Amino acid sequence: MSLMGIDVGTTGCKVVAFDHDGTVLAQAAREYPLLSPRPGWYELDPEQVWSFVCDCLREVNAQLRQDPVTALALSSQGEAMIPISRAGEVLANSPVSSDRRNASQTALMEAALGTEHIYAITGQPMDTIYTVPKVLWWRDHMPHLLDDSWKILCYVDFVAYRLGAQAAIDYSMAARTLAFDVHRLDWSDELLAAGGLTRSQLATPVPSGTIIGEIPRRLADDLGFRGTVKVVTGGHDQPAGALGAGVLAPGRAMLSIGTTEAMVAVTDAPRPEMLACHVSCYPHAAPGSFIALSGNQTGGRLLRWYRDELAAAERAEAASSGRDVYDVIVEQVEDAPGDLLLLPYFVGSGTLYNDSSATGALVGLSFDSKRADIVRAILEGLAFEQALGLRKLNEIGVEINALTAVGGGARSQRWMQLKADICGTPVSVLHTSEAASLGVAMLAGWATGVYASLHEAADQLIRVRKTFTPRQDRAEVYQRQLSRYAQLYEALRPIYQAMARD
Fold first, then answer.
1. 290, 299 in Cβ contact below 8 A?
2. Quick one: which of 224, 61, 197, 180 has its CA closest to 138?
3. First CA to last CA distance, the chain
4. SS3 assignment for 190-215
5. What does the buried/exposed string (b/e) look like for 255-280 if buried means 16 or more CB atoms within 10 Å of the residue's CB?
């Protein structure tokens, strides 16, 4: 018997089957395009995403002849929403978190309700990324969508619904809509009204680890499942990944290195000092606790941009050698601090400054600069941003003294050593880098009685493969560079503001 975790990301989906001891039995992944019909607009075709999820399910199930799946749960990107008809038909593409078309709607909502008031209810610092401001854009520009919609679902509840479950959403994902009261654990009538939404248009909020249905036999046969398969609520990908990384108590944080980058630690309920530094605080995928989230929307997507726009030579080498193109890109970097500084704000600043007008910057270029220097600046810039986030979380009382790295980037030993050197904190990697899939598989097992508790599941399933400790000589150099990096945004801020006005 096996447990399955499905992770529906911004640029790709993964399906992983685990045995009850945490061994990966089978996995499959697909990459799908992030559509950009206009500058600043980023959206997905939900039907294409669903099709690729189904392909992954069939591929994984074909490898599980001796270990059929008994339960599954899902994690997904947050915020992106999908309007569907009563018949389940998708009515429009889904703008993802980095889509900024709704800036004016966000500003109007913030002015009407107040940043502090919104944070006190939701634990989310006001931003364009959330679902409600995106719905407000639809209301202003495509009102027929809301009139024709039966439900507006996030990807975690959309895929579960397509798998035959009821329209239910876990608390951690509901919190990413900006319509959820994280204290009452229910939709906020005030914020629903602000978005022109009703409860009936959204999924029913329930705790992570709740059984919400079974896959119907005909669909199960089509997807390759054998026997009864329970569908269980999972979580937003960041807290789900934290669960899969064993982040169940203060002290350790998950460092997620995927399309976006995030640092997630266990904490108490939202506090004003968290809002002051734009830290999200909302329910964990482990029921009964909260997480603090600091992150950057650019993340590994920046390496994908480099791959697509600048890495023709690396792509050719990967194709001829059969190696992963990202390994080819990263391994060309020397194991020493670089001279360039990169500000990884390609879709806004992220948590630290919460500035959607900020853009990427590369400082220090000369005629001696090479492509490998740019790659190193990308890796270092993303790590510098996380180091500043780590510093800020510790300053506001969110204790972090060790990191567990997850996601695709965690497979690179060179990058993990660099992260440890720059953050000045040990960085561990797990036997599986797909912590979000593991985390929701833990929830599926807990919900169906395989594990007595999530702590028991963590003890059985989570295994550290290697820990990278900071190297003193590198760490000292990087601390000096971190000080310069920390000044870069403030130096460019007047330019960003002037560009935004134009």
1. no
2. 197
3. 59
4. HHHHHCCCCHHHCCEEECCCCEEEEC
5. bbbbbbbbbbbbbeebbeebbebbbb
Per DSSP, the residues of 49-68 read HHHHHHHHHHHHHTT-SSS-
Q: What are the per-10-residue average pLDDT scores of the chain (502 residues)? A: 95 95 94 92 97 98 94 96 94 93 94 96 94 96 92 97 97 98 97 94 98 98 96 96 94 87 90 90 96 87 92 93 92 91 90 87 95 94 93 91 90 92 94 90 97 94 94 93 94 90 76
| Coil, helix or strand at residue 451 | coil
**C-alpha of 474 from chain center:** 29
Would you state the structure tokens that stand for residue 425, as one six-digit string? Answer: 């904190």
* Cβ atoms of residues 325 and 274 within 8 Å: no
State the pLDDT at residue 32: 94
- φ and ψ at 217, to 5 degrees? -55, -45
C-alpha–C-alpha distance, residues 36 and 95, integer Å: 10
Q: What pLDDT is stored for residue 268 in this prediction? A: 84
Residue 465, burial from CB neighbour count under 10 angstroms (0-12, 13-18, 19+)? exposed
Radius of gyration over alpha carbons of the chain, in Å? 22
DSSP letter for each residue of 233-298: EEEEHHHHHHHHTT--STEEEEEEESSSEEEEEEE-S--HHHHHTT-EEEE-SSTT-EEEEEEESS
Q: CA-CA distance, 79 to 76, in Å (whole number)?
A: 9
- Return the sign of the alpha-carbon dihedral for residues 496, 498, 501, 502: negative
- How many residues comprise the chain? 502
pLDDT score, position 48: 98
Q: Alpha-carbon distance 274 to 267, whole Å?
A: 11
Q: What DSSP line would sit under 304-353, residue for residue?
A: HHHHHHH-HHHHHHHHHHT--HHHHHHHTS-SS--S-EEE--BTB--TTT
The predicted pLDDT at position 151 comes to: 96
